[in-house]
Design a protein that fits this description.
17% of the residues lie in helices and 20% in strands. By secondary structure, it is α/β, with parallel strands linked by helices. The chain has a six-stranded mixed beta sheet with strand order 1-2-4-6-8-10. A five-stranded parallel beta sheet has the order 3-5-7-9-11, with no helix packed on it. A hairpin with a 2-residue loop joins strand 1 and strand 2. The termini are close together. Bound molecules: 2-acetamido-2-deoxy-beta-D-glucopyranose (5 copies). One 2-acetamido-2-deoxy-beta-D-glucopyranose binds next to loops.
């Protein structure tokens, strides 16, 4: 291990993680995650109902679903969910927290409404991208978003969010894209703040940030 370059160590660790995930992360939970998302969203254009067919036993079958990207095409473990401009309605799909290996969630340009759950940080802590822009979300921006330590992209613009931007979001040290314009936010805001931190994602593949929270003696 000592002789490996940083990059090899990273790949090695990710490989170990993936191996251990086969036994502990529970692929079943990702299938349930998508079932729950489908059940909780209104889909007036039948975008999900035509693509998300759960009557299939093939390992990795969900990886062919519209908007779903898996870690590996033959393993039902979801890496990214991108459901953009599909006319979806309803509230933020809480079931997404059961996709325990998710790194990116993009629900932009739909017609989702209601407030975000205060405990939205129950999503995978390693999430690097959260795009909820161009919907009709309302209420306060949950301060718990600040618990997504690895977040690179946070887009909440073009919604109906109220109140102030939680100051805790200033702790998101890896953020490189942050937009909250066109909401009903009040108070002292830095809506178009640019961040001076070097964007981590440009230096490492996003999964490598996992390294920083592993115990030193692995
Ligand atoms: C099940 O999923 C696999 C992999 O996506 C696909 O090739 C196959 O056609 C599907 N079977 C049915 C019955 O839909
Ligand atoms: C997550 O999955 C568990 C087990 O399947 C289930 O009991 C729970 O309701 C799910 N959570 C959400 C928010 O759907
Ligand atoms: C979004 O929903 C609102 C209220 O339900 C409706 O008036 C509006 O037409 C919808 N917009 C789109 C783009 O579907
Ligand atoms: C972050 O997560 C911890 C542990 O779940 C929780 O106690 C804390 O309130 C969260 N932070 C915020 C700002 O919500
Ligand atoms: C934010 O952007 C607007 C329009 O682009 C500009 O007028 C304003 O000065 C900017 N505010 C800050 C704090 O940079």
């Amino acid at each position: 291990m000592l002789l490996m370059s940083g990059r090899d160590v990273c790949h090695g660790v990710v490989f170990l993680l993936l191996l251990s995930c086969r036994f502990s992360c529970g692929v079943e939970s990702d299938i349930n995650c998508l079932k729950s998302i489908k059940a909780s969203l209104e889909d007036p254009l039948d975008m999900l109902s035509s693509s998300w067919d759960f009557n299939n036993d093939t390992e990795g079958f969900i990886c062919n679903f519209l908007g779903i990207e898996c870690w590996h095409p033959h393993e039902s473990k979801v890496l990214n969910i991108k459901l953009v401009d599909l006319g979806l309605k309803g509230r933020f799909p809480r079931g997404v927290q059961n996709c325990t290996s998710l790194t990116g969630l993009d629900l932009s340009s739909n017609n989702l409404s209601g407030s975000l759950p205060d405990d939205i940080d129950r999503l995978n802590y390693f999430i690097t991208s959260l795009d909820l822009s161009s919907n009709s979300f309302s209420g306060l921006i949950p301060k718990s978003i600040s618990n997504f330590t690895f977040l690179n992209i946070l887009k909440l613009d073009n919604n109906k969010f109220l109140g102030e931007i939680p100051p805790q979001l200033g702790q998101l040290s890896r953020i490189k894209t942050f937009s909250v314009t066109n909401n009903q936010l009040s108070g002292p805001t830095t809506r178009n703040k640019t961040f001076s931190h070097p964007p981590m994602a440009m230096k490492f593949p996003s999964y490598c940030v996992i390294l920083h929270v592993l115990p030193q003696n692995i």
